[in-house]
Inverse folding.
């Protein structure tokens, strides 16, 4: 079976598993304990992982807080800034094409008296910088816009957006869950990004681990936010709870590998995407329509309408041979809000399937499309 649902999650790399195992077995110490070797070994491993993730993201290790993944980080940043800055303003800007962990959190904040602007997106799910600028008010405390879309792969103009937010003195958060390990960027070159979310399992690390990037100034002072989890004060008091050392070590190893092979993996994904596009065109011709853009996108995500074919039936039928999904795994029971935000009809949405590739796939693997 060919796995083409890598935007939902990716397989764990063997090197990642090997790095994790000792921390599930003999090295079981609590990294917050002190003085004995098992605690110190766990602590050293966590700090090494933090260093590895910081190299991949191009930030300082101390700017990273380990969380359970992007859902938690998105909640932490949105609720944490809303709560902390509520006396300064009550307006937050996001877009209609964000992940449910942003949209549902915004809905919750609306019920607490915050005003949310949901920006419209273009035919590929991107926001316009001009629209964002027009939406900013004196009351705006936060802008949260995803870097790359999980269904269409489109990249938002993060350089311009982050620069605009910096110029206006407004905090900017980006959900980078789908782009880490798939596009080459360094947070050093994006001083306007205040916060960033990502999850390890999208780049061949374990599920249930991610980071919050919270920028620090030149004196090492982090942008203050109200913690989501109160307790023992781990992670600089921002995220209490005993650290999932094995998962964190796995994320660190996955980050190290993603960083070491970034350029190679990106060009492989581009090649595979080109090959799959050709195979789909050859096989289905005018019976398919690509919803995704052809450039300025995450490599390896294709979003395809099969005219007149129900996507649930298609996905089930393909399941023994190819694993794909109808869209985001997080909202597969409802018609995609992302595709609806780009103007697709309910019928077009019900005909759509997402193919998401990984650098572990070969061009030969894709030949299975010829035999469909
Ligand atoms: N944001 C985006 C863009 C995502 O694709 C996902 C995962 N589907 C998340 C957030 C949530 O990540 P997790 O499930 O790892 O918490």
């Amino acid at each position: 079976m060919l796995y083409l649902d890598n935007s939902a999650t990716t397989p764990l790399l063997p090197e990642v598993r090997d790095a994790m195992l000792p921390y599930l077995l003999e090295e079981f110490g609590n990294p917050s304990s002190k003085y004995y070797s098992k605690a110190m070994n766990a602590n050293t491993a966590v700090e090494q992982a933090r260093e590895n993730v910081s190299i991949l993201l191009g930030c300082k290790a101390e700017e990273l807080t380990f969380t359970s993944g992007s859902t938690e980080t998105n909640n932490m940043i949105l609720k944490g800034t809303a709560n902390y800055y509520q006396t300064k303003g009550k307006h937050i800007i996001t877009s209609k094409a964000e992940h449910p962990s942003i949209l549902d959190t915004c809905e919750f904040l609306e019920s607490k008296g915050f005003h949310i602007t949901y920006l419209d997106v273009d035919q590929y799910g991107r926001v316009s910088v001009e629209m964002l600028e027009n939406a900013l008010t004196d009351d705006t405390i936060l802008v949260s816009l995803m870097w790359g879309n999980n269904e269409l792969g489109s990249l938002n103009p993060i350089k311009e957006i982050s620069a605009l937010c910096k110029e206006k003195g407004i905090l900017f958060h980006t959900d980078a869950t789908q782009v880490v390990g798939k596009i080459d960027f360094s947070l050093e070159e994006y001083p306007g990004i205040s916060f960033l979310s990502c999850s390890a399992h999208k780049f061949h690390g374990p599920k249930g681990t991610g980071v919050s990037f919270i920028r620090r100034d030149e004196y090492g002072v982090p942008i203050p936010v109200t913690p989501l989890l109160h307790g023992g004060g781990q992670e600089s008091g921002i995220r209490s709870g005993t650290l999932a050392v094995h998962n964190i070590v796995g994320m660190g190893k996955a980050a190290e590998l993603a960083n070491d092979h970034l350029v190679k993996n990106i060009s492989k994904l581009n090649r595979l995407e080109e090959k799959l596009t050709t195979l789909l065109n050859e096989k289905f011709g005018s019976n398919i329509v690509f919803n995704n853009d052809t450039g300025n996108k995450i490599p390896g995500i294709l979003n395809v309408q099969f005219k007149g074919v129900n996507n649930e039936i298609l996905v089930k039928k393909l399941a023994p041979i190819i694993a794909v999904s109808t869209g985001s795994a997080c909202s597969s029971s409802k018609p995609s809000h992302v595709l609806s935000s780009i103007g697709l009809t309910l019928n077009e949405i019900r005909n759509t399937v997402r193919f998401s590739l990984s650098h572990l796939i070969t061009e030969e693997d894709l030949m299975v499309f010829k035999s469909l």
Residues 262-284 form the longest helix (23 residues). The chain has twelve helices and twelve strands.
